[in-house]
Write a structure and sequence with these properties.
The protein is of the alpha/beta class. It contains 15 helices and 16 strands. Strand 15 and strand 16 form a beta hairpin.
Amino acid sequence: MFRFSIHTECEETRARTGTIETDRGLIQTPVFMPVGTLGTVKSVTPEELDGIGVQILLGNTYHLYLRPGLEVIEPFSGLHGFMNWQGPILTDSGGFQIFSLAKLTKIDDAGAVFQSHIDGSRHLLSPEKSISIQLSLGSDIIMCLDECIKYPSDRAATERALDRTTLWAERCKTRWEEASGSCGTLFGIVQGGMYTDLRERSVKGLMDIDFPGYAVGGLSVGEPKEIMYEIGDDTLGRLPRQKPKYVMGVGTPENIIELVSSGADMFDCVLPTRNARNGQLFTDSGALNISNAKFKFDTEPVDSGCECYTCKHYSRAYLRHLYLSKELLAYRLNTIHNIHYFTHFMTRIRQAITEKKFTAFKKDFYQK
């Protein structure tokens, strides 16, 4: 089962609330998905994520295929059973990891031949294989294989990657339809770099194929944020209103509120978890670096208005001590706080849209 319903739309922006219905539960949108690349959100348990209010996790085809391998995961009836997460899971196709991690990659229309970053073994990831892996993982939302490119890229290279992404999207849908009856639904990914006309062409090609949902790829890859917002707004505005819209790999609270304004429904990013492990904690007053000397004697929680486990029980001074001592508990407590912050931030965004106060909420966000 997969269904997307729109509930409330902002009268001044394209922000909206909705519900995605899946076999493993409902997802209230706009939503942020913590990244669990290897079948785990680093340092925290699935039970803790559920307690925080996380609705959906992201896993990764490339990483799970290489380690631990499908032969390890399949006896558990997929990734949900393997990691003991009962909610929905979205899996990325592996395209970005081939671009960013794999060695000696060769890409043509057949797929991507790459050398594993783990042991140097060689593999072919075709569109069909990417879908088959995600079906084996039991993904609730499956992503088409796309070709990612660096920023900046010239127009010719961008156009080649766009056309290949569209070709692969057709093959991904064919493979997915052949497996009808399996769990999961399929999203197409828009590419086209920083060229609005190529983005338009990518959107049209994917809409002709027709997917249950669409993702905007190729943002937050080093471009200035002004360009990200321009391309994101243009692309989101071209995608069909009645389908969920997912902006991949984004981002900061500012990125999220701007792209929600443009009509985005779904986000993922390693930022809250990676930054937690680097000692950066998010608050309504901005991010703070817990290693700063000014927190040495600070008896206050990270954020006095936060209801997370970390803020209820521990002081800034203690968190600073743990972090400087490289204690493992530092990574857990920091991550719990940051995931709670992002999850609660999305809850407040949904509430503001529902109450017709989103513009005021956005203005207040920038004044803090």
